[in-house]
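C-alpha cells incoming
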C-alpha cells in the first residue's frame, strides 16, 4: 500500500510538467514532432476553445488542471471565475499562517518532501519572513494574490514579484485616500472595487476593507501591461494610526518584533488612537530588550501614542481561523 502511494505521488509529481513540455515551443523540432505524434492532444485543445471561444463572465471548473494551461487560456477569453483542481502536489494554496504552522512542523520533524513549483497565498497578510520560510521549506516560488468571496481573485503577483497585477477585465479598482480622492503614487488608501461581471448583484464601488499603496503607473518588468497594486497592506484592521492620524502598515511593526528574535506568539493591538499594546505570550520575551523594542515602536508611531506591553496566556485567532499579527480597533 505504502509503495502504491509512493508510486502515485511520483506519477502526479511528474505528469503536469511532462504535459506542459509537449506544448513547449522551445525546441521547434520537438514541438513539430509532438504536434504530429499527438494530433489528438492538440486537436482537443483547439476544439475546446473553438466551442468556448467567448467565455466572458463564465465560471469554469478545470478538473485535472495541471499547471493551468487551459485555465490560463480561459482567463484570457474573459472567464469570470476559474477553479482548477489537480492531484499534483506540486502546487500549494493556503492561508499564510496555516502554512507557517505546517512549514514549522515539517522543519522541526526533519521531514523530506518533494519540492513544489509554486505556493499561492491569500486571505491574510503575507510577511517577508513567511515568504522566506515557505521558499526554504517547500522549494517553490511564492505568489500572493488578493480577492474577496464576493468577487473572486482580482489581483495576483507575477514572476517579477514587484506588486500585484489587477485583472482589469473583471474588476474596476480604485485606491482612495482618507478624503475619498484617488490616492497619489505610493499613498496608502482603501481598495474599492466594482465587479464588472456580476449580473445578479452588481457590487459598485465596494469597500473590501483592504488597504494598498497606489501605483505610479509603471509597466511591470514582466511585460504584462495590466496595472499594478504597489503593495497590499491588508485589512484596515492591519493598519496602525500614528500620532498624526497617518496610516502605518502593520508589517513595519511586525518586522521590528521579528528582528528581535522574539520566540513567542505576539500581537500588536491599537485599542484607540492614543495607545498601542504589544501582546506577548507568557515567557516568550526572555532575552529580548523590551525598552529598545518600545523605543523602536515609539519612533514609528510618534510621541502621542503610548506603547505598552501586555503578557498574556493566549492570543486567540479570528472567528474565521485567521491569525492577526496586527489588530486595529480604531475606525479608519
Ligand atoms: Zn508583472
Amino acid at each position: 500500500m505504502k509503495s502504491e502511494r509512493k508510486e502515485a505521488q511520483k506519477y502526479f509529481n511528474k505528469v503536469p510538467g511532462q504535459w506542459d513540455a509537449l506544448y513547449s515551443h522551445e525546441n521547434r523540432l520537438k514541438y513539430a514532432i509532438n504536434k504530429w505524434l499527438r494530433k489528438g492532444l492538440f486537436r482537443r485543445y483547439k476544439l475546446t476553445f473553438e466551442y468556448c471561444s467567448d467565455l466572458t463572465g463564465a465560471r469554469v471548473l478545470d478538473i485535472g488542471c495541471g499547471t493551468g494551461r487551459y485555465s490560463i487560456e480561459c482567463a484570457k477569453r474573459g472567464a469570470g471565475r476559474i477553479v482548477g483542481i489537480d492531484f499534483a502536489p506540486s502546487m500549494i494554496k493556503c492561508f499564510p499562517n496555516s502554512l507557517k504552522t505546517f512549514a514549522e512542523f515539517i522543519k522541526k520533524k526533519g521531514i523530506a518532501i518533494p519540492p513544489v513549483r509554486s505556493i499561492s497565498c491569500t486571505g491574510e497578510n503575507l510577511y517577508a519572513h513567511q515568504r522566506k520560510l515557505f521558499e526554504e521549506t517547500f522549494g517553490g516560488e511564492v505568489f500572493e494574490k488578493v480577492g474577496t468571496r464576493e468577487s473572486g481573485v482580482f489581483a495576483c503577483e507575477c514572476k517579477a514579484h514587484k506588486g500585484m497585477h489587477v485583472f482589469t477585465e473583471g474588476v474596476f479598482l480604485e485606491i482612495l485616500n482618507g478624503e475619498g480622492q484617488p490616492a497619489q503614487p505610493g499613498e496608502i488608501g482603501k481598495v474599492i472595487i466594482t465587479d464588472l461581471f456580476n449580473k445578479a448583484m452588481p457590487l459598485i464601488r465596494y469597500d473590501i476593507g483592504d488597504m494598498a499603496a497606489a501605483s505610479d503607473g509603471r509597466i511591470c518588468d514582466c511585460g504584462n501591461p495590466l496595472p499594478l497594486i504597489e503593495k497590499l497592506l491588508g485589512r484596515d484592521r492591519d493598519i496602525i494610526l500614528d500620532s498624526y492620524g497617518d496610516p502605518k502598515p502593520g508589517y513595519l511593526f511586525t518586522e521590528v518584533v521579528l528582528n528581535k528574535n522574539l520566540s513567542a506568539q505576539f500581537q500588536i493591538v491599537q485599542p484607540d488612537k492614543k495607545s498601542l499594546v504589544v501582546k506577548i505570550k507568557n515567557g516568550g520575551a526572555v532575552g529580548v530588550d523590551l525598552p529598545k523594542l518600545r523605543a523602536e515602536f515609539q519612533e514609528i508611531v510618534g510621541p502621542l501614542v503610548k506603547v505598552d506591553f501586555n503578557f498574556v496566556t493566549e492570543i486567540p485567532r479570528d472567528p474565521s481561523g485567521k491569525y492577526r499579527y496586527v489588530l486595529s480597533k480604531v475606525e479608519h
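note: The two ends are 56 Å apart (CA to CA).
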